[in-house]
Amino acid sequence: MNKPWRYWIWVRLRLDGLRQDRKLPSCQVFFGQQFPNPAQDAVQEKTVQRQLVQQMRSPTKESKLAETCLRCAISWEITYTCESLVNRFGQRFGFTTESLLGFVLTDEKPGRQRPRPTETQGDRSLADTVLRQFDPERSQLNTWTKRLVLSHTLLNQHLNEHGLYLESDWSLLNSLSASRLRSLLMQQSDYAAVELDQAVAVLQSYQIIYRGDRLRERAGNAPNRSRCQPPTPDQLTRMLAHLQDQADVAQSTRTGAAIDADWILAQLRNWAQMIRDVRRPPTVSLDSPEGRTVLEQQVESTDEDDPQQEFLQNYRQALQESLDKAIAQVIAQRVQTLARRDPRKAKHYLTGLTLFFCDGQSMGAIAPLVGLTQQYQVSRLLKVRELRADIRRQVQILLRSRIGELAQDYVDVSQFDDQLDELLDSALAPIFAEAEAETFAPQSPRRSLLNQRLCRYLIQRSNLQ
Amino acid sequence: MNSSFIDTDPRFGERSLHPSAISLSPTAIAWAAHHSQTLPPSADAWSCYVQLLAMLGTQSWLNDRLLQPALRWDMDAEDWQSLNDETLPTTPLNASPVPQLWVGQTLVNLLPLNCVEDGEVDVPRSLIGGDSAPSQAAPHFHLLVEVLEELDQVQIRGFLAHEALVEAIATAGLTPHNDHYTVPTQWFNLDPNRFLLQVEIPAPVLVTVDRLTPQRLLEAFSRPVINAAVWLNHELDQVANYLSWQLLPSFDYSPALRSLRSSEVKLDGIVADLTRYQSVTIPTGATTSAYDVQLDDHDVRLYVMIWELPTAGDTSDWMLLTILSSQSDSLLPLGISLQVYDTQTLLAETTLQESSNTFLYTQIVGAQQEAFLVTVRSPNGLTLTIPPITFIP
Prior knowledge:
heterodimer; A: two-stranded antiparallel ribbon; 3 strands; 64% helix; globular; B: six-stranded mixed beta sheet
C-alpha cells in the first residue's frame, strides 16, 4: 500500500481559505501499531480499510482513533479530487482548488468528542456521509469519496456558474435509449442476445420508476433544483419488482447469481460511465482563449483586388448607415427587454457594453463595476458574441433592400439572388471578424469599424440621458 | 500532483454551458411535467416532457434574438400557438405535440436531444417522407435543441435544412428503426446564429440579372404563393402581408368615399386612363393591392388588381390586371418593362417606349388555381420577380 501517511495527515482549510496539512501524532502511532509494515505489497488498501471500519463501528477504545484515521484519508481524497478538477478545467473555466474545497472539505477537527453521525441526525460534513455509507466489502474509500465530491450539489452549482457541467449518472440514464444502450454494449464487448435483452429490460425498469417519480416531483412546482439524486432504496425495490415481472427476461446475472438491487445499481453506473467515455469533448467556443487562434486563421486578408473589398470601398456610406441603424435597433431592443425585467440590470448592461467596447476592459475587470463578481457572469450579461451576430444579421437585412446598387457591380453573376446573401455575408465577414479579433486583446485600442460605431452609439446614448 | 490520475481515470464527459442558454422558470417546468402526465398511458410521458421543455426554450430564445418575431406553433388548439410563462396552454393533449413552429413563413421542426456531443439524434420517420401523408407540410429547417433537464436549461445548438437532411439520409443509406432515423449530429451546422440569419431574411422576392430561364421559372413557381382570392375577404394573404403589400379599399366609382392616400389617388388616375383610352372594363368588386419596391435605384409600384369572371362551367375564372407605375410624381424610366409568365412560357410583355406614358399594364385571364409570375425588368436588365400569384377561393 502506498502513501500510508494519508491516514494520519489531515488536510483542512484555514480560516483564511488556504490549505493546511496537519499531522496527527496519535493517529500515526495507532496506525503503526495496527499495520507495522504498511509498505509491504501484501498489505492491501482494502484490508486496512476493512479493519479500520470494523474498529470504528465497534464499542472499543480504539474506535475513535480508527475513525480519525479514516477521516484523514477522506480529507486526502477530497483534496485530490478537487485538484484533479482544477488541473483539468480550472484555467479554462476560471475556478480554483480553494473555492471547491470550501464546499466539501468541511470536516471539523477529527478526534474531538462528539456523537457519531447517524442517518436520523443528519450529516455535518461530506466526511460524515462517507463514513455512514461506506461499506469496505463493496467499494474503495477513494471511489466512494470521489463520487460524493463530484455529485455534491453546491460544488456543482459553482462549476455551473463557471460554465462547466458534469452531468450526473441519473440524468445521463434518463435520456439513454434502448437502441443506444444496445449499440454501446455491443461496441464494448461480446454480449449474447439474452444479455442485451436483459440490459434493455433493466434500463426500462429504471426509467419507468425513476423518470415517473421525477415527473411527479417536478409537476409539484417545488423550488428545489438539485441534481438528480441516486435512486432511493424504495425506488430500487420497485425497479427490481418491475424487472422480475418481465417473464421473458433472464433473472440471473452472468455468473448465475440472482439479480438484486446492488447489481442493478452497478449496471446503471457502468452504463452512465460508458456514455461519458464515448462522449466527444465540448466544441470550442470562440469566446474562450483557445478560440482565438481559430478565429485569427479565418480573418480574411485585405486584398485590394478582392471584389468584396471594392464593394466595401464603394459602399462604405451605405454600409455605415446600415451599421449605425442596426446597432441602434438591436441594442434598443436588448435594453427594452432587460428593463422590463429589471431596470437596474438594463443600466448595468449599457455600462458593461461601454466598458467593453470603448475602454477595452476585460470581463473580469468589468464585473465589480456592474455589481457582479465573476467573469462568467459578465459574459452572460453582455452576450457579446450574440450581440455581434444580431447586429450583423440586421445589417444584412438593411443592405438587402439596396439590391439595385449592388447588382450593377456584379452583372456577371448568374444566380444572383441565391448568392446575394453569401455575397453580403462575405463582405461583412471581415468587418465582424476584425472586430471580434480586436476584442480578444484587452486594453487594445478599439479601431475596427464595428467597435468604433458601437462605442459611438453607446456614448451618444449615455449623453442623451 | 500525480498526473497519472487523469490518464487512467475514467473520463468526466464534461459539458460546456453556453452563455446564451435559456433558463426555464419553475412555473413552466411544472406545467410541462404536469401536462406530459395527462397523456394516455400508452404515450411516452418523459419524451413529451422533454419536447415541451424544448418548445418553451426555443420560443424564448427566438423572442430574445429576433427583432420582429412572428412565431406560431403549428397546433390546432389556439392556446397552444404561443408558449410563454404568461400564457401556458390548458387544452389537454391526446398525444405528444409535434414540435413545429412557424417563424414568419418558415416552418421549423425541433429535434430535442440531451447532448450534441453524444453524436446522434433521432428524427421521426414521418418527417422524412416516402410513406408520409402528403397533406402534411414539410418543414424548411430542423433545429437541434439540447434539453438540460437537470439544470432546467435549454440550449439551441444547431440546424439543418430539410432537403439537406433528406438527401443525406438517402446518400448514407440509413434505415429507420422503430419509427425514427438516427442521424449523426455532425451533419448539422452548429452555429445557431446562422439559423437566425436564414429565418430573418426570407427571399420570396427574386432579383436576377437575366431574363428568367426555364429553370429559374420553375424555381420561382416553387416559392410561397400569394393567394389573391383572400383579398376578396378584405384582408391580405400571409405572403403579401409579410412583404408589406397594401390592400386598397374595394374599387368604387365615387371618389368622395375614398381617402386621399397617394396610392389610391394615383390608382384613380390610372383606372380613369384605362377605362377611357384602353377600353379596359373594371367591375366593382375588383380588389387591388399595391406593392412598393426599389429596383435599380427606381422607386416603382405594382398594383395588382383581381376580380372573378363567371364562366359556363362549375368554377369561375379570374382576371389578373397588373399595373406598373412610379411611386411618386417622378416618371418611370424609359425601357422599363413588365412581364407575366405562366409555368411554361412568357404570356405577355410590355415596355415603356414613350415618355408620355406614365404606366404599363397587362391583363391575363386564368382558371382557378392557375398561378402567374409577374416580373419587372429595369432598363439595365435587372429583373425583379415577385411571388407567384394565384386564385384559390
